[in-house]
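Need a sequence for this fold. Nothing fancy.
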């Protein structure tokens, strides 16, 4: 039996409205667009923490590459739906583990995981996440209230 996913498990969410161009001929969101939604929410996670992704990557001389993803589809989103993409980050060594879930109101549409590997932009090799960067990846509930 699969564990029920609760919005309260996540640290952050970003709301967006499904655009017409993201829908397929059946009027539902094309499956690959959920990965785009995940990426948008992760970018907004960094921005909400006061560290826009581009600035963070430059300052810490690190880039992130997706090395794994999985999505569990439950129910489709449709054109003009307002959806919330919920995000939680964890890290270990060179990897960042993103747990994500998309809801329409309180109804779970899909959940997934992205795993990023830290990469040195100069050498292209793996790069361990520094303690300072690891600290920045941890969402603090007080940040949401600021």
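Here you go.
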């Amino acid at each position: 039996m699969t564990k029920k996913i609760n919005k309260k498990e996540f640290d952050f969410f970003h709301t967006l409205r499904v655009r017409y161009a993201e829908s397929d001929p059946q009027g539902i969101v094309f499956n690959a667009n959920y990965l785009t939604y995940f990426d948008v929410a992760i970018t907004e996670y960094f921005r909400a923490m006061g560290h826009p992704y581009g600035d963070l990557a430059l300052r810490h001389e690190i880039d992130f590459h997706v090395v794994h993803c999985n999505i569990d589809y439950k129910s489709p989103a449709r054109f003009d739906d307002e959806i919330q993409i919920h995000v939680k980050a964890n890290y270990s060594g060179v990897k960042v583990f993103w747990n994500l879930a998309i809801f329409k109101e309180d109804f779970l549409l899909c959940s997934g995981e992205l795993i990023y590997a830290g990469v040195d932009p100069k050498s292209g090799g793996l790069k361990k996440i520094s303690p300072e960067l690891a600290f920045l990846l941890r969402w603090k509930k007080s940040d949401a209230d600021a």
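For context: The chain has one domain: 9-140.
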